[in-house]
Amino acid sequence: MRTPLMPCLAAALLLGLAGCRHSGGTHAADTPANAVSTATTATAKEGTARMTLQQQHDEEIKRWEAWPIREGHSPERAWQGVLHLLRTVPRFADITPEIAGPALGMPGQSLPPPLRGYSARIHPDWALGWVLDERTVVPMLEVSVGHRPVPGSTYMDPAPVCDGPTDWAILRPELEAMGFVNWYRTGPLHYIAETEHFALTVALLPSTQLNGRLCIKGITLQPMPQKVRP
Asked: In terms of C-beta distances under 8 Å and separation of at least 24 residues, what long-range contacts does 91-100 make, across chains too?
């Protein structure tokens, strides 16, 4: 049973923007609220529920602007890190935060428990992060970029995070060389392929600033064969 690409990292990024308690070894600069308490976060959520949509959007923008930009994180490094994991880790069960973080170029843990992963704002309009989630029906590792809050389904061009040569046209042949050859779509910009040990979902974004180039928005790994948890 296959599960579709889930917006885990997007939710995690929003949690980071709302403020969260960190485990050891984290960087306070990775969140705008500098690790507020769980009780404070719960109170903030209650207050948010009473806001209008415009007020909620304005608050999200304020939190985004207060989130410091961390240099040194690269989406291209993250995508290459996924390739490295596929080449060097034989089973999904062997992927741990200690292995995933350094491979993806984003060491550390900055998401609120029970989530395991990391997120950082890397550009005025974009953030990058990863989540290892074993609470889902099928466990998953999601690596993704996300943009600043925008109203509704407003499009934001991914050119600032479409760095280096690792766009879809380059990444796909590298994946096919590892056995991901039978691609099919679950949407116009979502591709899925499988090998004996991994299921792979790639989400893309077109860049009008880069002549329609398909930039990578996110990659999700899941174990094969997929088994539904009781």
From this structure: 91/197, 91/223, 92/139, 92/141, 92/197, 92/198, 92/221, 92/222, 92/223, 93/223, 95/132, 95/141, 95/221, 96/132, 97/132, 100/130, 100/132, 100/141
165-199: pLDDT as tens digits = 788 999 999 999 999 999 999 998 999 999 999 99
Query: CA 90, CA 104: separation in Å to the nearest integer?
Result: 17
Closest CA to 218 of 138, 142, 133: 142
Evaluate whether 198 touches 175 at the Cβ level (below 8 Å): no
| 3-class state of residue 23 by DSSP | coil
Residue with tokens 């690596």: 143
Q: Which residues lie across from 208 on neighbouring strands?
A: none
- Provide Rg for the chain, Cα atoms: 17
First to last CA, the chain: 13
